[in-house]
């Protein structure tokens, strides 16, 4: 929130960009890391909520959702024992590891081109892409 005090037009600033880092876990829950997923869902929701203040602040909020990097090497040591007891070995990732350099380039792209409230995905050394979040009423299903 401090960034709004310094950058926000409502406080005499010029506006700006805040990039929050989430994860693919904010978009697709992984049962092996429920607490991590919850924290990344929170980053996404928090960021998109702040994005609603753009008209008053001039501060764009964008979110980068990253897939696997070297940070998750030996993930078994980062999973709580009760989950690990159920799943066994979690080191068999179906996602290829991408380099930090690739993520950094995707973030530069996001800063330059990302629309306010946008969530982009960086994965597998491919160009980043935006994720659509239709209004919840557009996702309704009959019960």
Automatic annotation (TrEMBL):
An example molecular function term from Gene Ontology annotations: oxidoreductase activity, acting on the CH-OH group of donors, NAD or NADP as acceptor
InterPro entries per the UniProt record, alphabetical: NAD(P)-bd_dom_sf, Sc_DH/Rdtase_CS, SDR_fam
Record key words, sorted: Oxidoreductase
Keyword Oxidoreductase belongs to the record: yes
Oxidoreductase is among the record's keywords: yes
Annotated PANTHER family: 15-HYDROXYPROSTAGLANDIN DEHYDROGENASE [NAD(+)], ALCOHOL DEHYDROGENASE-RELATED
Family in the record: Belongs to the short-chain dehydrogenases/reductases (SDR) family.
Xref: Pfam families: adh_short
Protein name (record): Alcohol dehydrogenase 1
Organism in which the protein naturally occurs: Cyphomyrmex costatus
One GO cellular component term: cytoplasm
């Amino acid at each position: 929130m401090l960034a709004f005090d310094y950058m926000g037009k409502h406080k005499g600033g010029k506006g700006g960009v805040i990039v929050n880092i989430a994860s693919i876990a904010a978009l697709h829950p992984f049962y092996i890391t429920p607490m991590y997923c919850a924290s990344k869902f929170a980053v996404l929701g928090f960021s998109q909520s702040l994005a609603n203040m753009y008209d008053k602040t001039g501060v764009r909020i964008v979110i980068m959702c990253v897939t696997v990097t070297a940070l998750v090497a030996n993930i078994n040591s980062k999973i709580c024992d009760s989950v690990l007891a159920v799943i066994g070995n979690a080191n068999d990732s179906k996602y290829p590891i991408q380099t930090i350099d690739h993520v950094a380039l995707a973030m530069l792209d996001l800063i330059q081109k990302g629309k306010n409230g946008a969530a982009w995905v960086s994965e597998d050394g491919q160009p980043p892409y935006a994720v659509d979040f239709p209004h919840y009423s557009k996702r309704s299903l009959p019960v």
